[in-house]
UniProtKB/TrEMBL annotation:
It comes from Proboscia inermis. This is Uncharacterized protein. Residues 1-35, 52-74 are annotated as: Disordered. Residues 63-74 have a biased composition (Basic and acidic residues).
Length: 467
C-alpha cells in the first residue's frame, strides 16, 4: 500500500517530484520569476488593498468611507472654485457690482444704437475693472467696449480688446471677437497694403463723376439717383474735371513745372495750391487736437488687471493729414527751409489770377541756425535789400520778420505790402517753399491777391553774400 501511495504521488507531481497543497496560513508569497517583482506580495491583492468590495443596492458603505468621500468632494470643489477665480470664470467683483455693470451695459447699448459711440465707451470704461474676459458678463462688457472703440476711431485699443477676447473661455464671445478682429485687420490690409481708395481713412463726402469721360449717362454705374442735367458738349465741364488735383504729389509736380507762364494752366496751379491749403489746414487742426489730448491725464482702463492702452507721447501719435499728405514736423520744416529762395509766383486766394516773377527778381535768404533773414525786393526803379531777425512759430508753422522797417511777413515787402503780414509754411522740400498768408482776418482785398506764394530754392550765394 505504501508503494501504491508513493507511485500515486509521483504520478500527480512534477517531473521527478511530488505535489503538495500550499500553506493556507501564508498571507504573502515570494514571486519565482524576476520580472514579477523582487519583493513579497499579498496572495490576494484586491482584498489586501481594498478591492473586491460590493457596492450597490442594499449595501451601505461604512462610516469611514463616507467621510472620506465627503472630504474628497469638498476639496475638489474648493480646488475648482480657486481655479475659476484665478481664470476669471467666476469673478467675485462681478457678483458684488453686478447691478452697476448691467446698468452701464444697458446705457452703452442704447448709445451705440443712437450713434453715440463716445458715450458708449465712457459708460463701459467705468465698470471694466470689475469684469473678466473669461466670464459671460465680463465678455459681453468688453465686446461692447471693443465695438465702441472701433466705431469712435480708437482702432489700436479695439484690436487689443478683440485679441484678448479671442482667447475667452466663453465660446460665443470668443467666436464673435475673432470675427470682428478679422474684419478690422482686413480693412487695415486693404487700406495700407492694397491701397484701396474705398478703404481710405478720409472718405470723400460726395462721389466724383468725371463727366469728361462719360459718353452715355447709363454707362456710369451708381447706386444713387442723378437728377442733374449735364451737357457733355460744353467744354467747361471738361476743363473743370481735368483741373481737379487729387494728391499731394500731383500738386507738387504742377508747381514744380509752373516756372513760366503757359507751362501749366492757371486754373490747374490754383487747384494745386488750394489742395495743399486744404490739407494743411486739416493737418494743423489735427495736430492741435493731438497735442491737447497728449496734455490731458489719461484714464487707465483695466482689462484682466492690465491697462488696455498706455499713453503714447505726442511724437508717437503724430501722423497728421490725409492718406497722401503729411504735415512735416516743426523741427523738420525749420531745418529744410534754411537756404536761399527765389520767388517763383504768387496766386490769388479766389483763383482769379496767377502772377509769375520771371523778369523781376525777388529773393530771400533764411538762416534758421542764427534765425536771421536777408531779403531783396524791387520797388519801382529801386531795389531794397534788408536784413533782420526771423521768428518761427512752431505750432502754426508761421514765420515772421522782426527788427526790419515795416517788419512782419517775409513775403510782405516783396509784394510792396506795407502791413507785411506773417506767412505760414504749408509745404517745403529740397525744391519748393509754399506759403500762405497767416492772418486771414487781417487780409484785405489786396492781400487776397497775394494769398499764396511759391518759392524755388537756389544755390547759396546766387543772389546773397552767403557761401
Amino acid at each position: 500500500e505504501s508503494e501504491f501511495v508513493t507511485a500515486l504521488k509521483q504520478a500527480t507531481s512534477g517531473v521527478g517530484g511530488s505535489w503538495s497543497a500550499p500553506d493556507e496560513d501564508e498571507e504573502s508569497y515570494q514571486p519565482k520569476i524576476g520580472t514579477w517583482g523582487a519583493f513579497p506580495r499579498p496572495k490576494n491583492i484586491s482584498v489586501a488593498y481594498g478591492g473586491g468590495k460590493r457596492v450597490g443596492a442594499g449595501v451601505n458603505p461604512d462610516l469611514e468611507s463616507r467621510e472620506r468621500e465627503e472630504q474628497n468632494d469638498l476639496e475638489a470643489k474648493e480646488r475648482l472654485q480657486r481655479y475659476k477665480e484665478l481664470a476669471g470664470i467666476d469673478c467675485v467683483s462681478e457678483k458684488e457690482n453686478i447691478q452697476e455693470i448691467e446698468e452701464a451695459l444697458a446705457i452703452a447699448k442704447r448709445a451705440m444704437a443712437r450713434g453715440l459711440y463716445g458715450t458708449a465707451a465712457s459708460s463701459i470704461e467705468k465698470v471694466c475693472e470689475y469684469c473678466s474676459t473669461n466670464s459671460k458678463v465680463g465678455g459681453e462688457v468688453f465686446l461692447e467696449l471693443a465695438m465702441a472703440y472701433e466705431a469712435v476711431g480708437r482702432t489700436e485699443e479695439a484690436k487689443t480688446v478683440y485679441t484678448e477676447l479671442s482667447n475667452s473661455r466663453i465660446t460665443d464671445i470668443k467666436n464673435n471677437a475673432r470675427k470682428l478682429l478679422y474684419g478690422l485687420q482686413a480693412i487695415e490690409f486693404m487700406r495700407d497694403e492694397v491701397k484701396a481708395k474705398s478703404f481710405s481713412k478720409k472718405k470723400t463726402t460726395q462721389e466724383f463723376i468725371d463727366v469728361a469721360k462719360i459718353q452715355i449717362a447709363d454707362d456710369y454705374d451708381t447706386k444713387r439717383y442723378n437728377t442733374a442735367y449735364v451737357d457733355l458738349s460744353k467744354n467747361m465741364y471738361k476743363t473743370l474735371t481735368q483741373s481737379v488735383v487729387r494728391t499731394a504729389q500731383e500738386a507738387r509736380n504742377i508747381l514744380v513745372r509752373a516756372q513760366y507762364s503757359g507751362e501749366e494752366p492757371r486754373l490747374k496751379i490754383v487747384q494745386a495750391l488750394r489742395f495743399i491749403n486744404r490739407e494743411f489746414s486739416a493737418a494743423i487742426s489735427k495736430e492741435k487736437e493731438l497735442k491737447r489730448k497728449n496734455d490731458e491725464p489719461i484714464k487707465v482702463v483695466l482689462m484682466n488687471g492690465k491697462p488696455i492702452a498706455t499713453k503714447k507721447t505726442y511724437e508717437e501719435t503724430m501722423e497728421t493729414g490725409s492718406d497722401n499728405f503729411r504735415l512735416g514736423s516743426a523741427e523738420q520744416m525749420r531745418e529744410t527751409m534754411d537756404g536761399e529762395w527765389r520767388l517763383q509766383l504768387i496766386a490769388d486766394k479766389r483763383g482769379d489770377g496767377v502772377k509769375y516773377f520771371n523778369s523781376t527778381i525777388a529773393w530771400q535768404y533764411l538762416d534758421t541756425d542764427k534765425m536771421k533773414v536777408t531779403s531783396c525786393r524791387p520797388n519801382g526803379w529801386v531795389t531794397f535789400k534788408e536784413c533782420g531777425d526771423l521768428d518761427f512759430n512752431e505750432g502754426l508753422r508761421e514765420i515772421v520778420r522782426v527788427n526790419l522797417p515795416g517788419s512782419g511777413g517775409i513775403l510782405g515787402s516783396f509784394l510792396q505790402d506795407p502791413s507785411a503780414l506773417a506767412q505760414q509754411i504749408m509745404f517745403v522740400d529740397s525744391v519748393l517753399l509754399v506759403c500762405r498768408l497767416a492772418d486771414k482776418k487781417a487780409a484785405s482785398d489786396e492781400d487776397a491777391k497775394k494769398y499764396f506764394s511759391v518759392w524755388r530754392r537756389v544755390e547759396k550765394g546766387t543772389y546773397s553774400d552767403a557761401s
